[in-house]
Model the fold of this input.
Amino acid sequence: MGVAFLPMNPAYRSDEVAYFLGDAEPCVAIGRPQDAGWFPSVAAGCGVASVYELDSDGGGSWADLLDSESQEPPPPALTTGGDLAALVYTSGTTGRSKGAMITHRNMVSNAVALQRAWGFVDTDVLIHALPIFHVHGLFVATHTAMLTGVPMLFHDTFDPARVIADLSSATVFMGVPTMYTRLLAQPQLDVAACANMRLFVSGSAPLLAETFRDFGERTGHTVLERYGMTETGMNTSNPYIGERKGGTVGPALDGVGVRIVDDEDRVVPTGTVGGVQIKGPNVLLGYWRRPDKDAEEFTADGWFRTGDVGVFDSDGYLELVGRSKDLVISGGYNVYPKEIELLLDEMPGIVESAVVGVPDADFGEAVTALITVEPGFVLDVAAVITELKTRLASFKVPKRIHVVDELPRNAMGKVQKNVLRADFGP
Ligand code: MCA
Ligand code: AMP
Done:
């Protein structure tokens, strides 16, 4: 149809929605009935011409419109696979998200590569319990199942007991590490419960070695870990047939170029840590209306800088060892510290703040804020959290806030977040 889709997390608050709609300028916006008090006016305020509602049972003014139209599909407007298919917002390292322009070719190439790599067959049944506003649930899970033409048992929220109850009717599950730790917390997860399953895939955040080990021991299944990004879809995957190495995200997928480079973009020898760069048909067209970001994130010879830091082992398996970008991944959701710091720094009595991710048993990393205040000021932490919740989706709101005398800085005056992570970790 020539339409580009912009998925949004329904947990976003009005300021966040206003930013996306103002930046993307869609002609149609569809919201939920429970947001009727603010969504239509925010969308109209951003110049969106048509605003509709869709409820979780498929009813609402959007469904009514479709019912009232002729059933003839509109003439295809698509001309090439290089056309824009979706705008997915990501990576606001300076506090503002950027729209990653994903093409039809990006999606198709990745779906085909994953279908082959993970051995999808027409008898598969996928348990889909991921949110459908991020690449993991929206493209990786949905596209592999749809390309193979197999059913999805679609869960509208993640409930570990419900997933376990469905395992006997399914063959594939995809989840983020938090889902695996929550599944392991259920005593009914065992070999018998998983007897019909052929594959468990994990991604979006690092799978802890103990989760990998415990899941194997409890279920007899070796979790297959893979690595991707909104901008690139999936890049690497442990093999379906062959050794799945815990702590690694496997070799590059078919057709995807993955290289490790030094600070001057020179490829480093195997076994040397460096920046991870990607090239291939899976890599985004560019950032929506951000040529400055395209220039920053792509090398002169067309490789995309992921901001991840990794190393290849002698078998060609990639191990991710860190990130050069300032990003917290909490339960698979990306949280950009800058976005929270900017809001905190505006609040009365706060001098400055630093937001970091500290290790957390459930979410992998827990968003944690360190704050300095004006002399004599007593910070009401509960009020800060309440205020942040009106401005931000609640998964971004710090789980912990500490008032400190000062923030540690290096010789360049930059806040040393690694020191804070170590000091405020468990
Ligand atoms: C929910 N909460 C969270 C998180 N999730 N807080 C921190 N981190 C989180 N991840 C908070 C809510 O804000 C709420 O707070 C309270 O927990 C309960 O919310 P609820 O919705 O009931 O949570 P849940 O159902 O228990 O959610 C946990 C979850 C979810 C199922 C693990 O976070 C999830 O679906 N994560 C997957 C995200 C994902 O798909 N990421 C892929 C993006 P309060 O009570 O204060 O309101 S990355 C990607 O796509 C790339 C390409 C890749 O590689 O895959
Ligand atoms: P997003 O911007 O939401 O697409 O998140 C992509 C980021 O998630 C990557 O750049 C990595 O930092 C991280 N990520 C994805 N998969 C994995 C994984 N298996 N292990 C560690 N980090 C991962």
Summary: Residues 130-131, 134-137, 157-158, 176, 178-179, 203-204, 228-230, 330-333, 363, 394-395 surround methylmalonyl-coenzyme A (ligand 1) (CB under 6 Å). The first helix runs from residue 14 to 24.
